[in-house]
Amino acid sequence: MINVVVADDELPAVEEIAFLLSQDSRIGKIHRATSGAAALKALEENAVDALFLDIHMPALSGLDIARVISRFANPPLIVFVTADEDQALQAFDLAAIDYVLKPIRPQRLAESVRRICELVEDTPAKPEMITVDQGGITKLIPRADIAYVQAQGDYARLHTKDSSYLIRVPLNDLEQQWGESGFVRIHRSYLVCMDKIETVRLQTGKAAVVVNSTELPISRRALPYLRERLAANRVRPL
């Protein structure tokens, strides 16, 4: 599903486009904006795949927003939705993927969504980066480098192969946020990336995993779920 921003200085126009998009099962979150500034703010605060922009808005026009977005490292896709037929050439010069004229036909809007979906699927996913502060310096580390996380009160310590980083996020919150990315709670104090587990040791009265040559305990409560995850990854004959 794709997340979008709909920006138009006329609220009824925003609501019309948002309603039509909401009927499409390919659309996820729809963020509404009634000014160029509000559209840029929505981009700062949310993960957005595409924008549906009116061209003529006061202060920051849709074309102005497109120029700003063109400087982004990973810019969202742009669809202009406008009553102005004369700006199409300039719009496509700014790398817009579509130019939809008002009044909007649902079938025409659906075609724009199809183009967005194709382009989003063809774009290689970038590794998710985690911001950490260390000694007054802010660093970005790929989440894929994190082998396990250790609870330290209201903080959590992220362990990579070569270092560790303390962040002010409780382990319970990370468990919820990273569960779909392969991290499993094995103990009240540990969250482990399944891909980083080297060995699982199941002995009478004691269970543990080895990650980055470090042995971490598995609680009795967490053991059944971990067994299920391990069984799901087991290779079986056809």
Outline the structure in words.
- With 238 residues, the chain is an alpha/beta fold.
- The chain has seven helices and 15 strands.
- It has helices at residues 11-22, 36-45, 62-69, 88-93, 106-122, 171-178, 223-232; strands at residues 2-7, 27-33, 50-53, 77-82, 98-101, 129-134, 137-142, 148-152, 155-159, 164-167, 183-187, 190-193, 197-203, 206-211, 214-217.
- Strands 2-1-3-4-5 form a five-stranded parallel beta sheet. It has a five-stranded antiparallel beta sheet with strand order 10-9-8-12-11, covered by helices on one side. A three-stranded antiparallel beta sheet has the order 13-14-15, with no helix packed on it.
- The chain is elongated.
- It starts with a strand and ends in a 6-residue tail after the last helix.
- It comes from Glutamicibacter mysorens.
- Residues 130-232 form the HTH LytTR-type domain.
- The modification 4-aspartylphosphate is found at residue 54.
Topology of helices and strands:
Blueprint: E1 2-7, H1 11-22, E2 27-33, H2 36-45, E3 50-53, H3 62-69, E4 77-82, H4 88-93, E5 98-101, H5 106-122, E6 129-134, E7 137-142, E8 148-152, E9 155-159, E10 164-167, H6 171-178, E11 183-187, E12 190-193, E13 197-203, E14 206-211, E15 214-217, H7 223-232
Parallel strand pairs: 1-2, 1-3, 3-4, 4-5
Antiparallel strand pairs: 6-7, 8-9, 8-12, 9-10, 11-12, 13-14, 14-15
